[in-house]
Design goal:
Length: about 425
């Protein structure tokens, strides 16, 4: 009978003793008459043992010389081995080299971040990067499960758009045939506003593009965002959905991605307490908090990364900041009826100094007010005619938000920089690989 090909992660549940693995040589060491191979196959790592019982001296010497990252297919008997790093070991009877690797550029010694980023296409093979990508994948799945279970409909927003959404200073511009300029989408929000008037509760999930001049640890020029939008929901309903979503995602990762969090040496204590309700403070209270800490921050300015870090360090849970001055926020936000200088919006700052992961608001539903704001902001009215239409035909109060996948992943994984939270980061000074 043929020996079955098994994935490493399925070894604990397989009833087969004798198996085949197809993967790559991640590491090796040799102690005289025994060669230890660390084999990875994408689902995990396992130690393989080759000795003189199954191989000749000559064969062992050959195995010992297989270069790292060569692709190999091995066969052998699996057994539980408490001393092995993963608790399992394969006692090898056959080692077949599929492709001999050239000298692998990423060795164990410490490489600079520049070098690793330059070799991102190979770096993702390493244990920690794999763990991050697996957690990212589960975060996305958790978000979608959460929204799907609550009756939201996924509506894909266009990437090529005729107008801005989040201000005109960060637009990527391109020529669009005979129709003039087009722009890479900064956000699917405006289209979700149309979609929620059709389907009630909707979300889009896709890439967003910002020609950000900033080189901070929180900014990418291409990032992924999930954007729910709900007809008839006000700004407070909106915040409740956000805290439930974030709590659900964090608890799901704790439940299903323990091993990956361990590989990343993430302290999970702070994550265990991420449950509703989250604290809520106003923009004014946030400014006062900064001033109390001796930061000379002016009411009316926008928070930068440093201020966000200081504010979020004051709380064990993510913190909502609501009621920002309208002046520092986009045109579409609904003014507070009690003080039209403020808007019914919120940012959500992740704890441990991570800062903003969500931006959301109630949207303007009044036709005249929206027309005024478009004029005030010098936006080209023709490009927004369809968006204004939504206020002509059955307009209702509605709300939504955008959650950044990379910032959320960086926080949950405990990463210093968002560039490791996306497979192939795009930054102001990086478009390769
Ligand atoms: O606060 P932002 O700009 O909000 C919007 O785009 C709204 N239109 C969303 C909506 O209401 N539907 O962006 C939302 C989130 C941020 O909180 C952040 O997590 C992420 O998107 N984000 C970025 N992530 C990485 N790099 C960048 N340059 C980012 N800009 C925003
Ligand atoms: Mg924002």
């Amino acid at each position: 009978m043929a020996i079955p090909w098994i994935y490493i992660e399925d070894i604990p549940k397989t009833k087969k003793e004798e198996i085949e693995l197809r993967g790559w040589l991640a590491n090796k060491r040799s102690s005289g008459k025994i060669v230890f191979l660390i084999i990875r196959d994408g689902t995990g790592f396992i130690q393989g043992v080759a000795d003189l019982n199954n191989f000749t001296q000559e064969e062992l010497e050959k195995i010992e010389k297989i270069p790292l990252e060569s692709s190999i297919i091995v066969q052998g008997k699996v057994r539980e081995e408490p001393r092995a790093p993963t608790g399992w070991e394969i006692y090898l009877s056959k080692v077949e080299v599929i492709y001999i690797s050239q000298e692998y550029p990423i060795q164990k010694k410490d490489h600079s971040i520049e070098f690793l980023m330059e070799h991102r296409h190979l770096w993702i093979r390493s244990r920690k990067q794999q763990a991050i990508l697996r957690i990212r994948s589960e975060i996305i799945k958790a978000i979608r499960d959460f929204l799907d279970e609550r009756g939201f409909v996924l509506v894909d927003a266009p990437i090529l758009t005729p107008s801005s959404c989040e201000g005109t200073t960060t637009l990527f511009e391109l020529d669009y045939f005979d129709l003039g300029k087009a722009y890479l989408s900064q956000s699917g929000q405006l289209y979700m506003e149309a979609a929620c008037m059709a389907l009630g509760k909707v979300y889009c999930f896709g890439p967003a593009f910002r020609a950000e001049k900033s080189k901070t640890r929180r900014h990418l020029t291409e990032f992924w965002m999930v954007e729910p939008e709900m007809a008839y929901w006000d700004w407070q309903d909106n915040m409740r959905l956000q805290e439930e979503l974030i709590s659900y995602v964090v608890q799901r990762i704790l439940e299903r991605k323990r091993r990956e969090l361990e590989i990343l040496e993430r302290d999970i204590k702070p994550l265990e307490g991420i449950l509703p309700p989250f604290p809520r403070i106003t923009y004014r209270e946030a400014v006062e908090l900064l001033n109390r800490k001796g930061i000379p921050f002016q009411y009316g300015d926008d928070f930068g990364g440093d201020e966000e870090t200081i504010i979020s360090q004051e709380f064990d849970k993510p913190v909502f900041i609501h009621h920002y001055p309208a002046k520092i926020k986009p045109f579409y936000m609904q003014p507070d009826p009690e003080n039209p200088d403020l808007v019914l919006n919120n940012d959500l700052l992740a704890p441990e100094g991570y800062g903003e992961i969500i931006g959301g608001s109630q949207r303007i539903h009044d036709l005249n007010l929206l027309e005024e704001k478009i004029k005030e902001n010098n936006l080209p009215r023709e490009a927004f005619e369809w968006y204004i239409d939504l206020r002509r035909y059955g307009s209702v109060p509605h709300s939504g938000f955008g959650l950044g996948i990379e910032r959320t992943t960086a926080w949950i994984c405990g990463l210093k920089h968002v560039r490791e939270a996306i497979p192939f980061p795009r930054q102001i000074y990086r478009i390769y690989p």
